[in-house]
Amino acid sequence: xxxxxxxxxxxxxxxxxxxxxxxxxxxxxxxxxxxxxxxxxxxxxxxxxxxxxxxxxxxxxxxxxxxxxxxxxxxxxxxxxxxxxxxxxxxxxxxxxxxxxxxxxxxxxxxxxxxxxxxxxxxxxxxxxxxxxxxxxxxxxxxxxxxxxxxxxxxxxxxxxxxxxxxxxxxxxxxxxxxxxxxxxxxxxxxxxxxxxxxxxxxxxxxxxxxxxxxxxxxxxxxxxxxxxxxxxxxxxxxxxxxxxxxxxxxxxxxxxxxxxxxxxxxxxxxxxxxxxxxxxxxxxxxxxxxxxxxxxxx
Length: 299
What we know:
299 residues
């Protein structure tokens, strides 16, 4: 009969587990708070949210795949069956990222934070009703109500009110609440490691990028990014030959999507990609260790 673990051994194991959770929580809070600001910076530099998010997904997928191949990370290989099981949560996840990007495009970071502050109380209610989690204590409910009241107060006095921004904010709120609760269910049932969840999530998100950009109307602008240089060269050659009016050349130049991209735009995008890797890992790791409501409060 194997000897029972000593009290000291159990205490050390518990302490190690607490330290691990604390590290994940801290990393997620840092990445989450920073990424909102960096995403706004990136979208100001490149006003195409779907391109920014696609870069983040591609970077995270590539990093995890490469490090998994060389044995640095313990990552499960991609399987069609698990891809299908992960697909629903990834569709919701992508919609959350996409609506977040559109919210930041038309509104301020403060507006995003205000709407995000409404999610804990909504997630708490949905988690109790759908997943059968214990109802929060009266003290917790009062705290969540206070957070929501602060968000409502900001929205009432928002000097930068934009109807489009608030429409995207409402869509984001519905989607992110659903994603928070469903993602907790996925971590408990799918049987993937944290890095495995990160890989599946981002690979599927990359596959969804063309459809999201097409639905949002950004696909046309993205396509013009590749054809604009040739069009401008043709217009310039025609103008030099005297066959094109200057007004037409000016119109073509004004419609150039490259003009919307600021110099050194790659810098905020690269920073957002680094934070994207961190938040993907910390997010799934933290979801596995705490409740959906606690995760939502982290932001």
